[in-house]
């Protein structure tokens, strides 16, 4: 009597063998990204029967729902869990290890800030190994128009929002280099959008320069930013710009940790 050969384990789309738990996670992730059954099957690389069986369980448990058109959408259970997770999200705890790695790379003080009204409030400050410290502190509020983090937040807004911001704030002069005119601010924000990062060249505090990049939340909204700061006498504009890719990379890592998918 011939022995029945064991069924070989299925492989995912990347060719890796998957167990039952991994299959469920693969199907759940694919169903949240792709509404059509055929696309879910293609994304997972699993057999149609396996995919359908797992989807049926996910629908039964309300992690996924099926529309009248037969499309898959996030169900109330996954939305409820996502909401609870977002409420517990602590960006400071998420950002601090990534910011520490950035500081080790560039040897500058790093900040993470959040938009609060028409100001930026520092949530994280990580000092470098330099024998001095920046005149900043966690909880300290700074103007948007004169700071790198503020500029990347403003650059993500529309023209009408920027006009309303200027009408409210008045663009007060912090140093002789501060942008104080709406037209000049618009030009600066256009450059920020083109580059993907912003400079503060002694515009907020005399003698201090910084480069900042936008941090996006799970919806893609820019309300956070990460920056590095140093003394102008120690860092030329060219040297500061050379640090920009590292700042952008760290901002992207924080964004991904917050659930943002480009």
TrEMBL record:
Alphabetized UniProt keyword annotations: DNA-binding, Transcription, Transcription regulation
Domain of life: Bacteria
SMART domains assigned: HTH_ICLR (SM00346)
InterPro entries per the UniProt record, alphabetical: GAF-like_dom_sf (IPR029016), HTH_MetabolicPath_Reg (IPR050707), Tscrpt_reg_IclR_C (IPR014757), Tscrpt_reg_IclR_N (IPR005471), WH-like_DNA-bd_sf (IPR036388), WH_DNA-bd_sf (IPR036390)
Domain spans labelled HTH iclR-type: 18-76
Domain IclR-ED, chain residue ranges per copy: 77-260
SUPFAM superfamilies reported in the protein's UniProt record: GAF domain-like (SSF55781), Winged helix' DNA-binding domain (SSF46785)
PANTHER family documented for this protein: HELIX-TURN-HELIX TRANSCRIPTIONAL REGULATOR, ICLR FAMILY, HTH-TYPE TRANSCRIPTIONAL REGULATOR RV1719
Protein name: IclR family transcriptional regulator
Annotated source species: Cellulomonas wangsupingiae
